[in-house]
Write a structure and sequence with these properties.
One of its GO terms (biological process) is metabolite repair. This is Bifunctional NAD(P)H-hydrate repair enzyme. By secondary structure, the chain is of the alpha/beta class. The chain has 17 helices and 18 strands. Strand 16 and strand 17 form a beta hairpin. The radius of gyration is 25 Å and the shape is elongated. The C terminus is likely disordered. The protein binds ligand NAX and potassium ion.
Length: about 475
């Protein structure tokens, strides 16, 4: 797992470390790491042009020292000082010694010819939307030819939330120090940070335990263990699915298929789309009776395409009255938002999977702080909230959060949510902790989306078809993608 550390946690760890290291040592570590990444991106230093945008804080200091490293290797470095009176004095001296040029914000011509632009305007000390002069430079850098590299955090991005007010520096790479900050991987910030490179400056042992994480393929592989010798089809957890309707069986077919393809244990389907599901998935055990008559299951998925009429409401209430884990999706979210006590009174795990509009039905818009909003709803309902988005956020009622790293914009198409709830139900039926399990489902869903998107625009059925090879790949078994 990759821990995501808040600004307060980074500052606290820095304070401890600063007291134990010679003055300037941390900034040197940061600047050396930054220059190393820049060299890798440029391929060579000699003869290249680098423009550093330099604010009046330590973030600007990092950019100046890194510029000095690059200048010492033969790069032509220009520092554009936004606040000449406050630029980091030692950094400025180092850059000048190494032969770098220094100008003010009125003379940013270097931006139009740079091979690489360093954004050292503001880091974790940045507050609010970029001021006009900084915004102008960030916009100019965006249209210029140089590779845009953010120092620690793209200026204008809130490091804790990813919120952007107005303009931010549109980095293609962000070189961040000590720990990945949440704002680099979630919300709008994710789009401004590009590829994140973490430079170790020794903060690790002093950092508080993070409250937010990203899962890796290895973490997710633990949720996808193949059956052991002693397993049979029941011992690995059976998932029950209530989805679709006689007129619209599509959601039921996608959800059931996704569950089957995620874990080829047992999948039961109960609902009015029974004929459609039977025709598509002879492997599922299908009934058009109520969930209570479907046979034993270890987890339920309820809601995709069920509608919100009285019958649908009574089926939802029946499922939520069980003491089993339940995934509440789509139409079931609309109904749960009307009667949140159906969720609150449960003691077994519930996972809600809203997109932004569904989230708002529970009483508050998502807003710019996606992790904070998901945490608030999770705590209010005592349920895990999986808030869908470009970077899906999962929040546990205890405040632990996960941010998904594998999402692609290709997934923004009809039916992909039905696939996610099928994956999630299948994984939840094994009895693993619900928040991490939900994060694992989002990760796998994203990986399947990446695979399906390689050959052009994807439709939800492509995700289902790609799931088995994707599970194989994430498990690291090296199963060959069948290309189906
Ligand atoms: N504390 C330390 O020992 C270390 C700090 N490091 C660097 O220091 C940074 C934090 O430094 P600071 O606390 O000095 O703060 P920053 O340099 O991140 O931010 C303060 C500067 O940003 C400007 N600024 C703030 N909001 C702005 C806005 N909306 N528009 C335009 N300009 C704005 C301020 O005028 C000031 O010049 C980290 O992000 C990291 O880059 C690293 O060198 C590692 C070691
Ligand atoms: K920056």
């Amino acid at each position: 797992m990759i821990g995501l550390s808040t600004v307060a946690d980074v500052r606290a760890a820095e304070d401890v470390l600063l007291a134990r290291t010679p003055e300037g040592a941390l900034m040197q570590r940061a600047a050396t790491g930054l220059a190393t990444v820049c060299l890798r991106l440029l391929g060579r230093a000699h003869g290249t042009r680098v423009t550093a945008l330099v604010g009046g804080g330590n973030n600007g200091g990092d950019a100046l020292f890194a510029g000095a490293h690059l200048a010492a290797r033969g790069a032509r470095v220009t520092a554009v000082l936004l606040d000449p009176g406050r630029a980091h004095p030692a950094g400025l001296a180092a850059l000048r010694r190494a032969g770098g040029r220094v100008t003010g914000p009125g003379d940013p011509d270097g931006l139009d010819r740079a091979d690489l632009v360093l954004d050292g305007i503001a880091g974790i000390g940045g507050r609010g939307g970029l001021r006009p002069e900084a915004a102008r430079l960030a916009e100019r850098a965006a249209t210029g030819p140089g590779i845009p590299v953010a120092v620690d955090v793209p200026s204008g991005v809130d490091a804790d939330t990813g919120a952007v007010e107005g303009t931010a520096f549109p980095a293609v790479h962000t070189v961040t120090f000590g720990a990945v900050k949440p704002g680099l991987v979630v919300g709008e910030g994710r789009g401004y940070a590009g590829t994140v490179h973490l430079v170790d400056i020794g903060l690790g042992p002093h950092l508080a335990r993070p409250r937010a994480y990203q899962l890796t393929d290895d973490d997710v592989a633990a949720h996808l263990e193949p059956p052991g010798d002693g397993d049979d089809k029941y011992s690995r957890g059976v998932v029950g699915i209530v989805a679709g309707s006689a007129t619209y069986p599509g959601a039921a077919v996608l959800c059931t298929g996704a569950a089957l393809r995620t874990r080829a244990g047992l999948v039961r389907y109960a609902g009015t789309a029974a004929d459609g599901v039977r025709a598509s998935w002879p492997e599922a055990i299908v009934t058009d009776a109520r969930p209570g008559d479907a046979g034993r299951v270890q987890a339920w998925v309820v809601g995709p395409g069920t509608g919100t009429d009285d019958d649908a409401r009574s089926v939802l209430a029946e499922v939520l009255a069980t003491d089993l884990p339940v995934v509440v999706d789509a139409d079931a979210l609309t109904m749960a938002a009307r009667e949140p006590d159906l969720v609150r009174r449960r003691s077994a795990p519930t996972v809600l999977t809203p997109h932004d509009r569904e989230f708002a039905r529970f009483g508050a818009e998502v807003g710019a702080d996606r992790i904070g909003s998901a945490r608030r709803l999770a705590a209010d309902l005592g349920a895990v909230v999986l808030l869908k988005g470009n970077a899906t956020v999962v929040a546990d009622p205890d405040g632990t959060a996960f941010v998904n790293a594998t999402g692609t914009t290709d997934l923004a198409t009809a039916g992909t949510g039905d696939v996610l709830s099928g994956i999630l139900g299948a994984l939840l039926a094994t009895g693993t902790p619900p928040a991490e399990t939900a994060a694992a489902a989002a990760h796998l869903h994203g990986r399947a989306g990446q695979a399906a998107g390689e050959s052009g625009p994807l439709i939800a059925g492509d995700l289902v078809r790609r799931l088995s090879p994707t599970v194989g790949r994430v498990r690291g078994l090296g199963l060959r993608d069948s290309g189906a």
